Amino acid sequence: MKTLLTHIEALLKDSSNAIEKSDSLEQLEQVRVQFLGRKGKVADLMPLLSALSLEDKRTAGPAMNECKTVIEKLFDSKKQRLIDTTLAAKEAASKYFDVTAYTARPHEGSLHPYTHVTKIITDFFTQLGFQVADGPEVETEFYNFEALNIPADHPARDMQDTFWLKIPGLLMRTQTSNVQIHSMKKNTPPIAVISTGRVYRNEATDASHDCQFQQLEGMFIDKNVSLSNLIATMKLFLQTLLDDKNVKIRIRPGFFPFVEPGIEIDASCPFCTAGCSTCKHTRWIEMVGAGLIHPNVLKAGGINPEKYRGFAFGFGLTRLVMLKYGISDIRLLHSPTVEFLKQF
Ligand code: FA5
Description:
Low-confidence stretches: none
Bound molecules: adenosine-5'-[phenylalaninyl-phosphate]
CATH superfamily of the largest domain: Bira Bifunctional Protein, Domain 2
CATH architecture of the largest domain: 2-Layer Sandwich
Oligomer: single chain
Strand content: 15-25%
C-alpha cells in the first residue's frame, strides 16, 4: 500500500513537470498518451491496486482516481493555455499584415526562340555593315524562280514544291532568295543585305520538316567579291552563332541554279568530340547553301555582271534555332504550348 502511494506521488510530480514543459499541442498530446493512455503510466499502477487487500483498496482506490483527475486537469489547463498563445501569435501577425504589399502579378511573357536567334543574327551582320531587308511572302513567279535562274521547265522547281495562289503567277515564296532580286532592283552596289522570314513548301510535316519554316538569306555585291570573302564571313558567323571560337567549317560542292560555283558549308559539331545524335555521329552538321551569284541573276536584278560580283547564302533559320536550343521537334516552334515557350 505504501509503495503504491509513493508511486502515485511520483507520478503526479513527473506528469506535472512533463505537462508544464510541453510547448506545443503535439508535444502535449504525446505526454497525455504517456501518462493517461491505455498503456500509460497510470494504467501501469492498476496491477498494484488489484493486489491490495480490500481495506487498503478503500484508501488507495480514491487516491488513484484523484491522481488521474489531477493529471487530466493539468492537461486541460495546459492545452487551453497553448491554444490561447497560438491564437494570440496569429492575431499579432495579422494585425500588421499590409494588404497593399502583395499584388497579383501579371503573367510574364518571354521572347520566342526565333526572336532570340534573329537578334543574334542581325547584331552580327549589321556590325559587318549589312543592312536588314524584307521581302513579300506572297510573291510572283518571277522573283521566286525566273529571276533566280529557275525557268518554268527547270528541274530545280521540283526541289521546292510550291503553294500556288488562285491568282495566276502568284505563289507563297519557297525561299528568302526572292529578297536578293528585290534588293538589287532597289539599290546600287555595293549592296550588303540580310533577310529573315517565313517560307512555304508543299511538303509533309515531320519532326524536322514543315510546310512553313524560316530562312536566313544574305547577299553581298561589289567589285572583286570572292569565294574567300564568303567562306570567311560564314566561318565567323557560325563561330558567333554557336558561341564557339573553335568551330571549323568544311566546304562541299552544292547545286543551286542562282549561284556559280555553288557550295554547301558544314560546321564541326559544337556538341561533341566523338559524334552524337545531333551530328548523326559524323562530327559535321550541314549548315548553309551558298555561292557566287550567277551572272544571269545579277542581270535580272539590273546589275552589270561584267562590273560586279557577289556572294549569296541561305540558311534554314528554323534549323539554326533547333540546333542552338536543342529543340527536337520543328512543330513546337509554332505551337502555342506554354510549357515549351516559357523556357526561353
Ligand atoms: C534554298 O532554299 C536556297 N535558297 C538557299 C541558298 C541561298 C543557296 C543563297 C545558295 C545561295 P534549300 O532548299 O536547300 O536552299 O533550303 C535551305 C535550308 O532550308 C535547308 O538547308 C534546310 O535547313 C531548310 N529547309 C528546307 N526544307 C525544309 C523544311 N521542309 N522544313 C524545315 N526546314 C527546311
